[in-house]
Amino acid sequence: MFLSVTWATALLTGVFSALLAQRLCFPYFWKDLFYLLKVIRYGALLEFYKRTKIVTVLDRFVQQAQRIPDKTFLIFEGATYTYRQIEERSNKVAQVFEQQGTVRKGDTVAMLMSNEPDFVSVWFGLSKLGCAVAFLNTNIKSRSLLHCFNACGAKLLVVGADLLDTLQDILPNLHEDNISVWAMKNEISHPGVHSLLDKLENASPEPIPAERRSTDSLKNATLYIFTSGTTGLPKAAVITHLQSLKAAGGFWAYGGKSEDVIYTPLPLYHSAASLVGIGGTIELGATCVLKKKFSASQFWNDCRKFDVTIFQYIGELCRYLCNQPKGENEKDHKVYMGVGNGLRQDVWKEFHQRFGEIRMCELYGSTEGNLCFMNHIGKIGAVGRSNFFYKLLFKYDLVKYDLLREELVRDEQGFCQRVKKGEMGLLLSRISSQSPFFGYAGSKQLTENKLLRNVFVKGDAYFNTGDLMVEDEENFISFKDRVGDTFRWKGENVATTEVAEILGLADFIQEVNVYGVEVPGHEGRAGMAAIIVRPECEFDGKKLFECVFAHLPAYARPFFIRIQESMEMTSTFKQQKFRLVKSGFNPSTISDPLFFLDYTEKSYIPLTDSIYESIKAGQRKL
């Protein structure tokens, strides 16, 4: 008897000691384990899809429409749309284009539409015909828009009723290229443009045979999503069925349920809203509240009105919410989770104080990238978390990068050098069968430019994310900055070379160097351009304003202009940005003439100390 009691006491003591040691030495063990098991489980499902009957996100939607036909799928401007209604509406879209004979299986078609239920209906309807669909950014202008058609090879365009007039100047070019244009209207006054809404009214809701949308590989392209890059003009990132399925598992991996109501105020032409938002809603069999455009003043009222439980965000969105006047019922809502990226530490903390302990789930990953991090722990400031098992599945490294020279640091053998824990390095992700990189449509050189070869050994290949990251001693990963010619502002990537080309249209500008600068209280970097004025000319603020206003979307227009006598170059004859970025836009510390984009004056006006202080204090809005 005494012996058994002794053994029981020893066993309990051992278990208690093990749990205590785990709590002290491995505090995230169980959360890591459960998250990893979810990742493995979802990965096994994808392998099943690949090796047996191939299932796509569209197939999952059709299945859900059969399983829960009367459940609300979308809520838009107060109106509800069930899974059955969107299924039948998308069938009608497919039937119209099938009867018209305008597209065949394997064709690429383009969409230029704002957030609305018909965005999803047209997307799915075209996909049911076996087409790859290209989402066009609604902000891009004529020159870039034409480039997008050339990049993805689209021969048909569906445009929203509210965006048809923006095509006025390029419709002749589209017709010359034999691109068929369809508008979501009943009647059309534009020559050569077909109406679609009237035809949908009389179309059959019967489904197109499933064989039409079938694919023989999950690695085939289903979408093209445009992303800005170092080449300047938008690049068409190839989105495969496999990538779409992976993104659709995001909400589920974070613990989302079928009972959830998901609030999506982000544009559907971006992967966050379409792949993670719509795809994730479908995977859960949940409901999505789709917002035409984000409104900080309406956000919490919408959440209360529609019983929202999960919302999608970018960092700027949360900052806008924190900048709203305080209300009495700010914590009166059912939201328990936010999923997104780019949330600054100070905003994160203030968001919790203002609106409650909402679990903020940071994601990291580019549209075209082959690596994803998820902050499943919820540690403030981290974009993701790694561990021994994660690194077995996904091979990535942080390597030394010389910001001054804007190049990788290599050893005597020419190989890259890994940084130590806690040091900032350039994030590279190894390309393999488990983590493929599908690249961009069009020129193969665009894809090759994102690759780094012979990184650690001869013959290896890595995807260059262009992001500077830090991994701390606890394996939390934090984003620090971007390298190269792209920066983010207002949740959009701004390609500096594209902006420089537009500024170069001004006849008095000889040379341009575009970069982003930090502005107190703002996420990302605001656009700034260092320019050299032609010897025989003078700076013309009004002419430059007219140029950027006519050719660039609002988020890409430089707020600050710095006039220089000569451009500083790197040792490889690239324009030097590092010192310009560091020096910012303070007129009291910069001797060069500075100018500021003033929408009231419709001109670039001299940047004075008082204007600088008003920007710094947040009194002058950017």
UniProtKB/TrEMBL annotation:
Catalytic activity line of the entry: a very long-chain fatty acid + ATP + CoA = a very long-chain fatty acyl-CoA + AMP + diphosphate; a long-chain fatty acid + ATP + CoA = a long-chain fatty acyl-CoA + AMP + diphosphate; tetracosanoate + ATP + CoA = tetracosanoyl-CoA + AMP + diphosphate
GO molecular function annotations of the record: long-chain fatty acid transmembrane transporter activity; long-chain fatty acid-CoA ligase activity; nucleotide binding
Location(s), subcellular: Cell membrane
Enzyme Commission no: 6.2.1.3
Pfam families documented for this protein: AMP-binding (PF00501)
Membrane topology reported for the UniProt record: Multi-pass membrane protein
GO biological process: long-chain fatty acid import into cell
Superkingdom to which the source organism belongs: Eukaryota
Keywords in alphabetical order: Cell membrane, Fatty acid metabolism, Ligase, Lipid metabolism, Lipid transport, Membrane, Nucleotide-binding, Transmembrane, Transmembrane helix, Transport
Main subcellular location: membrane
SUPFAM superfamilies: Acetyl-CoA synthetase-like (SSF56801)
AMP-dependent synthetase/ligase domain boundaries: 62-383
Record's GO cellular component terms: endoplasmic reticulum membrane; plasma membrane
NCBIfam families to which the protein is assigned, alphabetical: PRK08279.1
Assigned protein family: Belongs to the ATP-dependent AMP-binding enzyme family.
Name assigned to this protein: long-chain-fatty-acid--CoA ligase
